[in-house]
Design brief:
Layout: E1 3-4, E2 7-8, H1 9-40, H2 47-65, H3 69-90, H4 100-122, E3 138-140, E4 145-147, H5 148-170, H6 172-182, H7 184-189, H8 194-220, H9 228-241, H10 246-266, H11 274-285
Antiparallel strand pairs: 1-2, 3-4
Helix pairs in contact: 1-5, 1-8, 1-9, 1-10, 2-3, 2-4, 2-8, 3-8, 5-6, 9-10, 9-11
Length: 294
């Protein structure tokens, strides 16, 4: 049996795969948080609940309208994104000139309400969501068998993360968004509807969380706690990468997922805390985060 530092190679491959999958969700969720904080300066503690809502919307589309996985992967983020737009227009936009703490408390309260309603309707155990037929079964990589759906999750997450980074950093609309956060009156003087731009940005950040929720539904099943299980770690990822840094969220999300997987192989007792240990070290050495600006 081939070993690396005393551990079987197949065990290492398996845990690295799980770490990469978790990293894909960390990257997607932290990306949505970074978009909202970086462009709107709102700490969106409802992000985990909106991740969960994406999974429940996908399940409802299948259960009540017989809409399969692939259309739901598009429709559920759009529906939850519209819900996010309503949240922004009725609640969030009142807090932009206040301290960050008010936004955190408001979104935390929204998260409790959304999760409580889901728990009341579906119970704590949640509901199953099937893997699409096209992605059932394993892929033979030669050195290991990888479930096809998990491979799809990594590819889809990486593709969406890259597309989001390109839009924000390399396009005119991204430049306008970044300029609006620096000097909204000046941008508005050039004819840009800044309030609408901010609303759509919040909706897009929420839609990213819902997209991750649809991807996660067949793996974790759809339950009211699925967002709560991720959100604390995701906030740590955002802090390590740098609050508001798009590239930092993507790189740190995937990197910490892999580090978590390696820790489960070589020192399982620390696997639940390794992300937070890294956060402490990074904040001591670089308080703005790895990719953040002071």
């Amino acid at each position: 049996m081939i070993t690396i530092f005393g551990k079987p190679l197949l065990l290492l491959y398996g845990q690295l795969t799980l770490g990469l999958i978790n990293g894909a969700f960390y990257a997607l969720l932290s990306l949505g948080l970074a978009v909202i904080f970086g462009l709107l300066n709102i700490i969106n503690f409802a992000h985990g609940a909106l991740f969960m809502l994406g999974g429940f919307v996908a399940w409802a589309l299948l259960e009540y309208l017989d809409i399969g996985y692939w259309p739901a992967l598009v429709l559920a983020p759009l529906i939850v994104g519209v819900f996010g737009v309503v949240m922004e227009k009725t609640l969030i936009n009142r807090l932009y000139k206040l301290d960050h703490l008010y936004g955190l408390l408001l979104t935390f309260g929204c998260a409790l309400i959304i999760e409580g309603l889901a728990r009341n309707e579906f119970g704590s155990s949640g509901v199953p969501y099937p893997i699409p037929d096209e992605l059932r079964g394993p892929l033979d990589l030669g050195f290991m068998m990888l479930p096809a759906y998990r491979a799809w999750v990594v590819v889809a997450a990486a593709g969406v993360c890259l597309a989001t980074w390109l839009v924000i950093e390399k396009t005119r609309i991204g430049s306008t968004l970044r300029a609006a956060t620096e000097n909204a009156p000046l941008v508005q003087a050039f004819g840009v509807n800044v309030p609408r731009l901010i609303t759509l940005t919040y909706g897009a950040g929420v839609a990213l969380a819902a997209f991750a929720g649809v991807l996660a539904a067949p793996i974790y099943s759809v339950n009211p706690n699925m967002g709560a299980n991720f959100i604390i770690t995701v906030f740590a990822v955002v802090v390590i990468g740098g609050m508001g840094s798009i590239l930092g969220s993507i790189v740190t999300g995937f990197g910490l997922g892999i580090l978590e997987g390696l820790t489960k192989v070589y020192y399982p007792q620390a696997s639940a805390t390794v992300v937070f240990m890294v956060m402490v070290i990074v904040l001591l050495a670089r308080p703005a985060g790895l990719f953040g600006k002071a």
